[in-house]
Amino acid sequence: MKKFIYIFFGLILFITLFTSYKVTSGNYDKQNLFIIKVKDIIPTQFKNKLREHIYKIRISLTEDKIKKKTTS
């Protein structure tokens, strides 16, 4: 039974990593049916909050890089 659980979670992990790599690397077809369905499932309000959060993180990382370059 443990072997089945390990295989199941390993397979789920592999599929998740493979799919997320294709999406995040920018090498995916934006008209892909799978991508469109995932975008439809995720609520718009959640997507907007996630975008805002990621944008804030990117700004802070960029500011940190600028500060490091100016102090060097």
Question: What would your notes on this structure say?
Answer:
By secondary structure, the protein is mainly alpha-helical. The chain folds into two domains: 1-29; 42-72. The protein has helices spanning 2-24, 33-41, 44-71.
Give the overall shape, derived from the CA principal axes.
Answer: extended
Mean pLDDT: 81
Distance between the termini: 57 Å
What class would the helix/strand composition place it in?
A: mainly alpha
Low-confidence stretches: none
The whole-angstrom Rg is 18 Å
- Total of helices: 3
Beta-strand percent range:
under 5%
Could you give the topology of this structure?
Layout lengths: L1 H23 L8 H9 L2 H28 L1
Summarize this, please?
It contains three helices and no strands.
How would you describe this structure in keywords?
single chain, 72 residues, mainly alpha
